[in-house]
Amino acid sequence: MKILKRTLIIQSLGILGITLLLLSTWNIGWASTQTTHVPDMKVTMDYWAPYYRPAVASVPDGVAIHIVNPTSSPHTLTHDGCRMSGPCAFDTGAVQPGKEFTIPALPPGKYSYYCALHPIMTGEIIVIPREPMLSQAANKEN
Question: How far is CA 125 from CA 22, 32, 56, 69, 87, in A?
């Protein structure tokens, strides 16, 4: 009886060890496919408030903003400056259902926007300068 229990324990440990080995190999392979570049920011249009997800998108300068419209209606991302006689930083025009649009990287600052077709839809893009972020990180290390 003791020999049978030992055999079952050894077999169970062997199966567990093989399983852990396979999982660790899979995880190493998965981790090696990860990239370190900064991806484009993605803003998705939606039917419900806040209508743009995220409603406030923060990105470092140099990063493009990728707009996706999965709804069944056309929408825009129109910078408030376009309607307030200020500088117009971006206007996607009508992004049709199932279509996408990319706003090139913007200079640092705050950019409030709305949908020209549905003015209740509003959002904001905040572009953060990279250099102050890097100098702040360097100051914290010292």
Answer: 44, 32, 6, 17, 15
